[in-house]
């Protein structure tokens, strides 16, 4: 009898499942047989809006809409990318089209009158070129690479020392309290010694051969594993980094990087901190920052530069005055010597101009209203 009762109950439950549709089925929309195709621009960020607006009613409110993207390009498998996305009510879809000269289309499969419109990707890559950033939005999120060139004192040809592309909280609000950068150091070039007050820095290198160094005072570096306390001795650690390897600089440690190979030394850098001192800055301090602001009467004895000025007819190669006049360099060349090699910053792909340096150039900074340039100081 018990077994027969179980069978009857299961049969009745099965009939209920057939007769009663689940709640989510009521929210489904019919798929249009031949939805219109809307052409899209290549390499452009779009938004499909499902967030309710005041005084706006739609037959799709409370239901899940479906849209489709069709991207034609030989680089895709079978030459085309086709994908359907369900968009729930109160959600918006953002996407970036591929960079191609082929045809790109958008379709609203459920007849909800959904259309893509240009918009910035706040969480991911934002606009991918300067033209989009300046034309399509007043709050752009495109970042230009900053290149650094050396100008020899003998009026020789300038040569590139390195490049930095970085994003932080100003460019991408989701990154408040952290930052990401791409660092490229040319052969015979050095990323000058510096430190970040509250940032730890981790790097992953994907090309070339470099050497990195860390300088740490005693009783500041925590011991690892199950050990407690700090390393008592002060230490200088220097090691080589090649493709596929990771390095780490502890918070507030003085560190430097240099290219010791024959090709570009390229790394991706990750910065993270706790409570931000300033939300959108790395707070990087270089030795040149310190030297440039130190009184000459203090700088001379500390660097032992001026001790023989009055005792010999041969002037010293370096004096406190000359050292203090050295530029606050992000990169340095191995050619730095008695004659100071000046370093000029410029936007990636732009010829360096010692009379109008910077990214953007000094002449454009007041008129620049778009955040297309990274605010992070390397």
How would you summarize this macromolecular structure in one to three sentences?
The chain is mainly beta and about 375 residues long. It has helices spanning about 1-20, 130-135, 285-290, 295-305, 320-325, and strands spanning about 35-40, 45-50, 65-70, 80-85, 95, 105-110, 115-120, 145-150, 160-165, 180-185, 190-195, 200-205, 210-215, 235-240, 245-250, 255-260, 265-270, 285, 330-335, 340-345. The chain folds into two domains: about 35-120; about 145-365, Jelly Rolls.
In N-to-C order, the SSE pattern is: HEEEEEEEHEEEEEEEEEEEHHHEE
Number of domains: 2
What is the averaged pLDDT score?
81
What is the name of the CATH class of the largest domain?
A: Mainly Beta
Strand content: 25-35%
Radius of gyration: 30 Å
Helix content: 10-25%
Fourth-tier CATH superfamily name of the largest domain: Jelly Rolls
> Structural class of the secondary elements?
mainly beta
Overall, the morphology is elongated
């Amino acid at each position: 009898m018990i077994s027969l009762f179980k069978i009857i109950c299961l049969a009745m439950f099965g009939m209920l499942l057939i007769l009663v549709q689940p709640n989510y089925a009521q929210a489904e929309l019919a798929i249009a047989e031949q939805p219109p195709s809307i052409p899209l621009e290549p390499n452009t960020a779009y938004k499909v809006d499902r967030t309710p607006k005041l005084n706006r009613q739609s037959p799709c409110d409370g239901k899940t809409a479906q849209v489709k993207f069709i991207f034609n390009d030989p680089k895709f498998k079978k030459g085309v990318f086709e994908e359907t996305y369900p968009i729930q009510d109160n959600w918006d879809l953002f996407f970036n089209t591929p960079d191609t000269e082929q045809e790109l289309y958008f379709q609203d499969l459920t007849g909800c009158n959904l259309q893509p419109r240009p918009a910035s990707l706040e969480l991911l890559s934002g606009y991918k070129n300067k033209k989009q950033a300046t034309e399509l939005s007043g709050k752009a999120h495109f970042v230009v690479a900053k290149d650094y060139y050396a100008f020899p004192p003998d009026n020789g040809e300038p040569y590139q020392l390195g490049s930095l592309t970085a994003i932080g909280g100003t460019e991408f609000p989701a990154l408040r309290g952290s930052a990401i950068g791409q660092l490229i150091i040319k052969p015979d070039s050095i990323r000058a010694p510096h430190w970040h007050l509250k940032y730890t820095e981790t790097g992953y290198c994907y090309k070339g051969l470099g050497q990195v160094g860390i300088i740490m005072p005693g009783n500041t570096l925590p011991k690892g594993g199950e050990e407690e306390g700090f390393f008592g001795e002060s230490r200088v650690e220097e090691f080589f980094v090649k493709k596929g390897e990771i390095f780490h600089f502890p918070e507030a440690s003085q560190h430097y990087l240099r290219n010791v190979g024959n090709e570009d030394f390229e790394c991706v850098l990750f910065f993270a901190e706790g409570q931000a001192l300033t939300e959108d800055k790395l707070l990087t301090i270089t030795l040149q920052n310190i030297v440039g602001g130190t009184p000459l009467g203090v700088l001379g004895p500390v660097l032992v530069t001026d001790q023989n000025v009055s005792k010999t007819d041969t002037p010293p190669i370096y004096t406190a005055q000359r050292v203090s006049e050295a530029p606050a360099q992000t990169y340095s060349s191995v050619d730095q010597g008695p004659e100071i090699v000046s370093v000029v910053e410029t936007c990636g792909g732009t010829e360096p101009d010692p009379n109008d340096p910077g990214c953007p150039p000094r002449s454009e900074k007041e008129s620049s209203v778009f955040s297309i340039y990274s605010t992070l100081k390397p």
